Amino acid sequence: VEWIWGGFSVDKATLTRFFAFHFILPFIIAALVMIHLLFLHETGSNNPSGIPSDSDKIPFHPYYTIKDLLGFLVLILLLM
C-alpha cells in the first residue's frame, strides 16, 4: 500500500498520485473501448443460433459508423 500512498502516511504525494490516476483513467477506458469496437467490427459478433445468415447482414460502413458516432455524440451531450 505504500507505493500507492507515496509513503507511510496519506499526504501530498498521495493526492498527486490519485489526481494523476483520476486524469489518466478516462483515456485508458476510451482507448480500450475503441480497441474493442475495432475488433468487434473487423471480426463481427458471434452467431449463437448457428443458422447461417449471410443474406440479412448489414454492411459496416454506412450503418454502424453512423450508429457509433451518434452514440458517442449522445454520450458527450449527456456528460456536458
Automatic annotation (TrEMBL):
Q: Per the UniProt entry, what is one GO biological process?
A: mitochondrial electron transport, ubiquinol to cytochrome c
Q: Which domain of life is it from?
A: Eukaryota
What single Pfam family name could you report for this chain, choosing any that match? Answer: Cytochrom_B_N_2
- Any keyword Electron transport? yes
Transmembrane annotation, as ranges: 18-40, 60-79
Keyword presence, Nucleus: no
| Domain Cytochrome b/b6 C-terminal region profile, first and last residues per copy | 50-80
Q: Which residues form the Cytochrome b/b6 N-terminal region profile domain?
A: 1-49
Principal cellular location given in the protein's record: mitochondrion
Show the InterPro entries listed in the entry.
Cyt_b/b6_C (IPR005798), Cyt_b/b6_N (IPR005797), Cytb/b6-like_sf (IPR027387), Di-haem_cyt_TM (IPR016174)
Q: How does it assemble?
A: The cytochrome bc1 complex contains 11 subunits: 3 respiratory subunits (MT-CYB, CYC1 and UQCRFS1), 2 core proteins (UQCRC1 and UQCRC2) and 6 low-molecular weight proteins (UQCRH/QCR6, UQCRB/QCR7, UQCRQ/QCR8, UQCR10/QCR9, UQCR11/QCR10 and a cleavage product of UQCRFS1). This cytochrome bc1 complex then forms a dimer.
- What is this protein called in UniProt? Cytochrome b
